[in-house]
Amino acid sequence: MTINNENKRSSVIPMAIVAGLFFILGFATWLNGSLMPYLKQILQLTPFQASLILFSFYIAVTFTALPSAWVIRKVGYKSGMALGMGIMMLAGLLFIPAAKTQIFALFLFAQLVMGAGQTLLQTAVNPYVVRLGPEESAAARVSVMGILNKGAGVIAPLVFTALILDSFKDRVGTELTAVQIDEMANSLVVPYLGMALFIGLLAILVKKSPLPELESDEEPTESNKGHTREALSHPNLALGVVALFFYVAVEVIAGDTIGTFALSLGVENYGVMTSYTMVCMVVGYTLGILTIPRFISQPKALMISAILGIVLTVGILFGDNNSYAIANAVLVPLGGAMLPDTLLMIAFLGLANAIVWPAVWPLALSGLGKLTSTGSALLVMGIAGGAFGPLFWGLSSGTSLGMQGGYAVMLPCYMFILFYAVKGYKMKSWK
Prior knowledge:
Blueprint: E1 2-3, H1 12-30, H2 32-43, H3 47-75, H4 77-101, H5 104-131, H6 138-163, H7 178-186, H8 189-207, E2 214-215, H9 224-232, H10 235-256, H11 258-264, H12 273-291, H13 298-318, H14 325-331, H15 341-353, H16 356-365, H17 372-381, H18 385-397, H19 402-406, H20 410-422
């Protein structure tokens, strides 16, 4: 896969465009962290039902990742990006009838369409980051994109809170009347309409932009099935897909369930909790840019991340929801909020998770050559972990374990990531 010679120029403008797309992906994705507890409150959902909001968004990856690779081979990477954003615009518009009718199934359908659009955009945009520069520094470039993506994750909950939640935060822990529910649901209409129109405009701009086309060496007449089988014969890719599945599971649990857990603890500004996790992720990405590969290799960074994730998960499971030691030591002296230790440890998972995505991608795509776009699609399928991680958390939260005990589902995820960092990425044969 190469950049066409006639378009071969400085990578600064292409990377700037790609960076903007990562910001849009992050903004639309991490709105879920505020939307989930908000819908839980107004639709009176159980933890399991609330987890379906995330499930519907991320399960779309399972059905659309490989078709996305086919679409990109047919229309090209740039057109694929524009088409993906067009689907995201449609999803934003679907939130309007969902809010007006307050039918839970319509919200889930809108989330499904949003996930499909994001999958196509992700499949098209990620290879640019890996290919616009040397492979050994790919993790650093992906980290730059991650800062934009997760930076949007910091901003999105704050925007959601400012535009929507601030007007209703006094209703936390109270039984809502029908009128109050209508007011809260209708407040979603204008923000989602604005987001849809903005994404649609960006789709047009990307289509007309000077972004160079990536030229694939793959034969377009070959079947997806043949591409997939050949790609999965590379253990570093196959195990990388599993590693990303577990990574996205823990990333989404940390970023999108923290608000719901905060709501259960009576935290009024539960809508901004995702921002705490995203700030930690931005810090992690920054550390990745500064240290990889100059001071630490991609595999070693991945190993450290997995170990930190395990330690923090144990701390969450056995932490005291009435202890505020971390907040008193870190946040309160700086004028921050008084939050329980368990909530802040969930936020700190952002630091553990940050390097995983940028480290796994280049390790998994190494040696694929002409199969890179199919490998990219398979790796994007790992995003389906975002559907099942919160789902199992929701199921566990409905048992005697409660929401706090539900975070135990993260332990096996981090353990597999640790295995991939130590051994999995080195495997070049299944024999």
